[in-house]
Design brief:
The complex is a heterodimer.
Chain A lengths: L20 H12 L8 E5 L5 H15 L5 E5 H13 L3 H9 L3 E5 L8 H16 L3 E6 L11 H8 L2 E5 L4 H14 L8 H7 L5 H18 L5 H8 L4 H9 L14 H22 L1 H15 L5 H7 L7 H25 L1 H4 L10 H14 L22 H12 L8 E5 L5 H13 L6 E5 H13 L3 H9 L3 E5 L8 H16 L3 E6 L11 H8 L2 E5 L4 H15 L5 H9 L5 H18 L5 H9 L33 H14 L1
Parallel strand pairs in A: 1-4, 1-5, 2-3, 3-4, 6-9, 6-10, 7-8, 8-9
Chain B lengths: L3 E2 L4 E9 L6 H11 L9 E4 L5 E14 L2 E9 L7 H8 L4 E7 L5 H17 L9 E6 L11 H8 L6 E3 L8 H21 L1
Parallel strand pairs in B: 2-5, 2-6, 6-7, 7-8
Antiparallel strand pairs in B: 1-2, 3-4, 4-5
Helix pairs in contact in B: 2-3
The chains are: A alpha/beta, B alpha/beta.
Chain lengths: 660, 199
């Protein structure tokens, strides 16, 4: 019975020109605050100028503003039909009740009230009831209420009591705008000048204009040739009088509308009077409103919601308008700050509408806090690897001095710095140590993590559709240190991201440090562009530990264990052939555990016995001893002893021994 | 009558054209009617006798459209000038926001002008309105008549305008001064309305 609102007919698709601006403004106002502004709103215009469109747009906008509103759109004929049906069913009261519960009643084509006395009185009654209840009524007709033939005088005054606005024929510019928009909607493309030519022709209403456009679209589709401005005239039959009209039209064809043309000077007199009154009202009465209006326009222009200010306009008296505007501006400033902050942390989140609505400042604060939380800096270096604890010797002198040089002038001297060397030589230690030193700087954000973690984070970000956030997080880093870069092998997306990040950070002179088991150009699965960039800085190699390094390491470890750094023991262990710091640590570990098992002193003799002779087996492991940066938990965590590294390390060692 | 309704966002000004009989009040309204675009004006209601004298009153609503977000309407009324219609005059005067006193410039009508002005004062007083506070302008109509028959605006000012309100020389039949008068009274009314709002 009731027509549904056509979703195509909204304010967004309504082309506003001078001829219908007032009606559209009134429609907006009504939709925003139904029942409060112009009630009833009576819109009249000739056929095909957008009455129904505007009426439905009001419905859509009202629904959008307050989804709970009960909005009824129907044509007068439908209204009459509904009435007749319910009367026939003996349920005239139900009919009345139905319409009295409507919050916004939109009635199209009320000119058909002519000669329908009973409907007129019904509508009068309904109008009165709805108005009394503060419900909104919007009506359209093709003529103003007094001109609807045979209309009850009371109904005329009712209908004219709110706001009566008319919509004229669109002017030239508006016609062009309408044609462009419609052509775009239809996906049709025309040569320049075509739509302008159509617009120049005097069509009585928009519907005819659409008809002309349709003809052009069809013609172009059938003939598969594009139309130019000349052929348009032939197709539309505009050659004779149309062309003349087009010449004379000159965009002012619609000016004759509105009765203004009747007397030359007379119109001016009224116009002057109107302008005068407007100025007076504007100056004196509406000064505060003007200020509020300006503020609304300004903030709206910047994309902020201005409900609070608009609410001010609804008020009876000015009150503390300036304070309200100032408070609003303050809130907007805060929103801007939040948005800027969030944009840095998570560009995607910054697009949220909460950052555009001062009414939801608290929500915006919360959202920002959330982003802040999520926007925690990327993983930093581990505090377990201080630079001071890194044993330096001839074997790693080059790498360490390169690292120190990089620390002196981060990002400027060796960028990137690539530390290469076999496993267990302290690359990770040095990397983290550099990270820790870099992190001492003011406002330093040091990203220091294993390449595997880096890859995992990216995958999680892709999964959570948060790549922007992930990127932003790393782009903020003042230094990027990645361990085990060889793991990038075959990870195309990560290489892509790293490549971009690399360039970005390098451009900003931010220090990049990587570790790899071998020279980058020997690593497989790395893209050429990554390799060449890695090679572009300094590739520093860590070699097998020399005696100096070994001694330093052993001394440090023993001190850490609270054991007496016995010189003979250190000498003995340092002389043992080991190819990495990690295996050296393993040796010491075994000696330590043997000593613990025997409950005897730690000595070179014991070490010799353990490492060369029959090692006393000890079922118990010293707890939580740091070996190679990995903490091996032995607090009952490992049940299957076969899988504990220590059970076969010494076998391997012995194999090596025997081999030698 | 409330002049400004902030809830419905309407401004409604009631302006009454007052003055002695045959001074040209209805002529003023007719001229304005002729100059207002169709879409802006309501039906002009004129209750006149056979000889076109105003019997009850003339009423001309003008819709000025949206002004600063307010739908602004002017309602122009005239009163019957003849002495014996005083009850009607008083009625029409009720709730007026402003008064245009249309005086007859003819020298021999001076007494009627004075009498009507006094009548205006007493009728306003009946409604509890002080003539010194209500927006009021004077219009000296029929300035197109031969010089020897009429008084100059300056003379009329001396004779009638002892409160020094804005005054306008006019020829309502041809429209001279009609809109100036309307502008004058509108300004006063709206300014008063502004003062009222601020208070």
């Amino acid at each position: 019975m009731t027509s549904a609102l056509n979703p195509k007919y909204s304010f967004d698709t309504f082309v506003v020109g001078a001829a219908n601006r007032l009606a559209v403004t009134a429609g907006h106002t009504v939709a925003e605050s139904p029942g409060a502004a112009y009630n009833p709103l009576f819109i009249y215009s000739g056929s095909g100028l957008g009455k129904t469109h505007l009426l439905m747009a009001v419905g859509h906008a009202a629904k959008k503003a307050a989804p709970k509103l009960n909005i009824e759109f129907l044509t007068l004929d439908e209204y009459v039909e509904a009435f007749h049906a319910s009367v026939a069913a003996g349920q005239g009261d139900a009919f009345r009740r139905r319409f009295q519960n409507v919050d916004v009643l939109l009635v199209d084509d009320v000119q058909f009230l002519t000669n329908r006395k009973e409907m007129q009185s019904e509508l009068l009654r309904l109008t009165e009831a709805l108005q009394a209840a503060g419900r909104q009524i919007v009506l359209t007709s093709d003529r103003p209420p007094p001109d609807i033939a045979d209309l009850d005088e009371r109904l005329i005054s009712r209908l004219s009591g709110g706001l009566v606005v008319d919509m004229g024929t669109p002017d030239y510019e508006t016609r062009v705008a309408i044609l462009r928009r419609k052509a775009e909607e239809r996906g049709a493309r025309f040569e320049p000048g075509v739509l302008e030519t159509v617009a120049q022709a005097e069509f009585g209403n928009v519907r005819e204009l659409m008809g002309a456009l349709n003809r052009l679209v069809a013609f172009q589709a059938v003939n598969d040739t594009s139309i130019n401005a000349e052929t348009v005239k032939q197709i539309l039959g505009l050659t004779g009088e149309g062309a003349a009209a087009a010449g004379a039209g000159d965009g002012r064809t619609s000016a004759a509308k509105g009765g203004g043309g009747r007397e030359g000077g007379g119109g001016d007199e009224f116009g002057e009077f109107l302008a005068d009154v407007t100025v007076t009202v504007g100056k004196a009465v509406e000064a505060w409103r003007a200020r509020v209006g300006e503020a609304v326009l300004r903030w709206e222009g910047e994309g902020y919601r201005t409900h609070r200010l608009e609410a001010l306009l609804q008020r009876d008296a000015p009150g503390a308008v300036d304070q309200a505007i100032a408070a609003f501006a303050e809130d907007v400033e805060r929103l801007k700050e939040l948005e800027a902050e969030v944009a840095e942390l998570d560009p995607q989140a910054a697009g949220q509408s909460v950052f555009r609505d001062p009414e939801r400042l608290s929500e915006a604060e919360e959202a920002a806090a959330k982003v802040r939380e999520g926007g925690a800096p990327p993983p930093g270096p581990s505090a377990a690897f201080p630079l001071a604890a890194f044993a330096v010797g001839p074997s790693n002198q080059v790498a360490v001095s390169a690292a120190r040089a990089a620390l002196e002038r981060p990002g400027k001297k060796y960028n990137p710095l690539v530390l290469v060397g076999k496993s267990g030589l302290g690359k990770t230690h040095l990397l983290n140590a550099v990270g820790l030193e870099l992190a001492r700087g003011k406002r330093a954000v040091v990203a220091c993590l294993s390449t595997q973690a880096f890859i995992d984070e990216l995958i999680a970000a892709i999964d959570g559709n948060r790549v922007d956030w992930w990127q932003a997080r790393y782009r903020r880093a003042t230094a990027l240190l990645l361990d085990d870069i060889q793991l990038l092998s075959g990870k195309e997306r990560t290489q892509e991201e790293l490549f971009n990040l690399f360039n970005l950070l390098q451009d900003k002179d931010r220090q990049l440090v990587f570790t790899a088991p071998a020279h980058p150009n020997t690593l497989s699965g790395l893209e050429e562009r990554i390799v060449s960039r890695l090679e572009g800085g300094l590739v520093a190699e860590l070699k097998e530990p020399d005696r100096v390094v070994k001694r330093a390491v052993l001394e440090r470890l023993l001190t850490q264990q609270g054991a007496n750094p016995d010189a003979a023991l250190i000498d003995y262990l340092a002389d043992r052939p080991t190819d990495s710091v990690r295996s050296l640590v393993g040796l010491l570990q075994r000696v330590l555990s043997a000593a613990a098992a025997q409950d005897g002193p730690l000595s070179a003799g014991l070490a010799r016995e353990v490492l060369e002779g029959q090692a006393p087996r000890d079922p118990r492991r010293g707890s939580g001893f740091r070996t190679s940066g990995l903490v091996v938990s032995s607090l009952g965590g490992i049940k299957s002893r076969e899988k504990v590294v220590w059970d076969w390390v010494d076998v391997a060692d012995r194999v090596i021994e025997e081999f030698r | 009558m409330s002049l400004v309704n902030f809830t419905t966002r309407e401004i409604t000004c009631k302006i009454v054209y007052y003055g002695p009989g045959r001074s040209g009040k209805t002529t003023n309204l007719h001229y304005i009617y002729g100059r207002v675009p169709d879409s802006r004006r309501g039906r002009m209601v004129s209750l006149a006798t056979q000889t076109d004298r105003t019997l009850f009153f003339d009423f001309l609503p003008i819709d000025l459209g949206q002004i600063s977000g307010f739908s602004t309407r002017f309602q122009l009324y005239t009163v019957p000038g003849q002495v014996y219609y005083n009850a009607t005059r008083r009625l029409v005067l009720q709730g007026a926001d402003g008064v245009v006193f249309v005086g007859d410039s003819q020298a021999r009508q001076l007494d009627e002008n004075l009498e009507s002005l006094q009548n205006l004062q007493s009728n306003l007083l009946e409604h509890g309105v002080d003539i010194r506070t209500i927006p009021l302008v004077l219009q000296y109509n029929k300035q197109d008549l031969p010089r020897e028959l009429i008084l100059s605006p300056a003379d009329l000012d001396d004779a009638l305008n002892f409160r020094a309100v804005p005054s306008f020389a006019a020829d309502a039949l041809h429209g001279k001064g009609v809109f100036e008068t309307l502008k004058g009274i509108s300004e006063l009314v709206l300014k008063k309305l502004a003062a009222g709002t601020a208070a």
